[in-house]
Amino acid sequence: MFAILEVTDGWYGVDAIVDHHLTKLVGSGAIFPGQKLHIAGAEILGTSEGISPLEISSASVFLRLTINGTRYINQLFKC
Questions:
Q1: Which segments of the chain does DSSP mark as H helices, in order?
Q2: Distance of CA 64 to CAs 19, 47, 72, 74, 79, Å?
């Protein structure tokens, strides 16, 4: 079973499917709501090309996040 999270840049939000390792971190509380993460190499699922976050109205468009492309960042870091 994989977790589905909402990720946001502070303005736009999109649902993300996370891999088994990230699901375990979410379950243990190591990744929690409001935590800042650095994401690299996310894959978009449910569309064959890029899409504006304002056009995502379907529950079938997700980002896929993996443990290898996800890092914690300092909570005091300002984007």
A1: 20-28
A2: 8, 12, 17, 23, 22
Q: Which parts of the chain sit beneath pLDDT 70?
A: 57-59, 77-79
Task: Quote the pTM value.
Answer: 0.82
CB of 72 within 8 A of CB of 24? Answer: no
Structure tokens at 1: 């079973």
62-65/13-18 β-pairing: parallel
**Residue 22 is encoded by which pair of tokens?**
């990230």
Residue 79 pLDDT: 60
